[in-house]
Amino acid sequence: MTKFSFSQINTWGKCNYQWHLKYVEGLMSPPTPAMSYGKLGHKMIENILRGEDIHHEIVIGEGEFDTGEIDEVQQLIEDATASVRMFEASLPLSDWETVELDGVPLIEFPVEVPLDDGDSYIGYIDWVARHKPSGQVWLWDFKFRKSFQADWVEEIDLQKPVYMKHVIDLGIDPIGTICGQIKSTAPKKPAMTKKGTLSKAKVTTTWEIYRDAVIENGLDIADYEDMKDKLKDIEFIRLSRAFRTDEELQRTWDTVFIRSVKQIKTQSSSFEPPPRSIGFMNCNFCQFREICIEDLKGRDTEDLKNQFQRREDYAA
Ligand code: SF4
């Protein structure tokens, strides 16, 4: 019996050999600051949606937040708080209400979809909510990103259609999915120049933060009016939506998801490692690139592999 996560199916789709290193050899990278930002941001959004304080259950140095130096984590929390507050204001949250299933709000909702042979697909749905003005129900996923993906990427997402199909099977009828993309860097206060003015170059912030800095520093707002226009196109939040039909959901499930599961199961019973998807787009972001290259050259890779952590369920 195997519990398949989206991460496993996604890795398989990107490169079968990367999947082998991750799920057969059990190699795991230590958490990165970007991962911590996403984890903190998700928890903060969950807290807000549940009506809790934004920092509820976020304790530095404990549990899943036991990573990095205290000062680093403190800064991450401050930045993630600013990002999430912007997201909350931009929706605005008052336009949305959480959908419930048998009295359980669909926030960070655990999913376990049965598959053949006792296997299952597991994951968490970030949020299912009704847009009050239109009455439409949407299935949400939150992504904290340094740079945003184009809106069309939502159309070829695999995770949310699978979740949406599951939610429909449970009797809820979303009209589509939304990827709430949130910048994983907080808007910054502009720096002061040596001349005692505020910098107008390379400022990644909002007009509101810039304007407050002008006032705080006792400067004349008229000298900075041009920044209002300059900053208006800097995006911190982007909502990418995809309307989805039942037919699309079923086809995604049958022709993409289930086929991948079958391929993984066939590969799992083989002693030969699977083929590699060599190419710039895959390999450029691959955490196992060095191992892969050394292995291709026929060299010993054990030392390189030992630099990674091993998954808990990995059997050496
Ligand atoms: S470096 Fe490229 S080919 Fe090798 S495992 Fe990574 S993605 Fe696959």
Key traits:
single chain, 316 residues, alpha+beta, seven-stranded mixed beta sheet, two-stranded antiparallel ribbon, 11 helices, 11 strands, 39% helix, 18% strand, globular, binds iron/sulfur cluster
Please render the helix and strand layout as text.
Elements: E1 3-5, H1 6-14, H2 16-24, E2 27-28, H3 33-49, H4 70-90, E3 96-98, E4 100-101, E5 104-105, E6 107-114, E7 120-131, E8 137-145, H5 159-169, E9 176-183, H6 207-216, H7 226-231, E10 237-243, H8 246-268, H9 280-284, H10 289-296, H11 302-305, E11 309-310
Parallel strand pairs: 1-7, 8-9
Antiparallel strand pairs: 2-11, 3-7, 4-5, 6-7, 7-8, 9-10
The structure holds iron/sulfur cluster.
Instruction: Give average pLDDT, whole number.
Output: 91
CA-CA gap between termini = 19 Å
Bound molecules: iron/sulfur cluster
The profile of the biggest β sheet is: 7 strands, mixed
Number of strands: 11
What sort of overall outline do the alpha carbons produce when their principal axes are compared?
globular
Q: Give the helix level as a range of percent.
A: 25-40%
Low-confidence stretches: none
Category from helices, strands and their pairing? alpha+beta
**What is the strand content?**
15-25%
Rg (CA only) = 23 Å
**SSE sequence, one letter per element:** EHHEHHEEEEEEHEHHEHHHHE
Number of helices: 11
